[in-house]
Amino acid sequence: MSKPALIALIALVAMVSFAQGDHVPAYNDRPPNAGETSPILPRDQLQGEAFRYPYQVRAYEVAAKIPGVLYQMPCYCYCERIGHNSLHTCFESTHGAHCGICMKEVFYAYEQTKLKKTPAQIRAGIIKGEWKSIDLESGTKTTD
Q1: Sequence-separated (6 or more) residues with CB below 8 Å from residue 26
Q2: In terms of Cα–Cα distance, which of 41, 86, 39, 81 is closest to 61?
Q3: At what angle do helices 100-114 and 119-128 cross, to 10 degrees?
Q4: What mean pLDDT value characterizes the chain?
Q5: How far apart are the C-alpha atoms of 7 and 23, rounded to whole Å?
Q6: What DSSP designation does 96 have?
Q7: Contact at 8 Å (CB) between 106 and 53?
Q8: pLDDT digits (tens, 9 = 90+) for 56-76
């Protein structure tokens, strides 16, 4: 690769990286209406290569407890680029199991829900990046 092409590629990657950090990803500002979402992937499908670690399975168990909250949360893996419209969408398939950001956000949302925070308050924390401090390994220790 020539030097000018390499510089152009680096500049493009930098622009994309900075651009996606400037906006809040897709979310919904209200709970879902009946039948508006697909279900969270059910327990009997939480197996195979995507679910090698306990925290991957636990993320889906937690997601199934707060689907209405997740519907109102943005997802900072920017999966809106592949058609997702909230954090809920990440857990309708195995996408969430492959993504540390999705799992950290779901554990954060669950933790905050248990503290009686509203979806708007939880969303504000996610936007501030508070989910980044979540340790996936300790996420398996969340209690019901």
Answers
A1: 74, 75, 80, 84, 85, 86
A2: 41
A3: 140
A4: 86
A5: 26
A6: G
A7: no
A8: 999 999 999 999 999 999 999
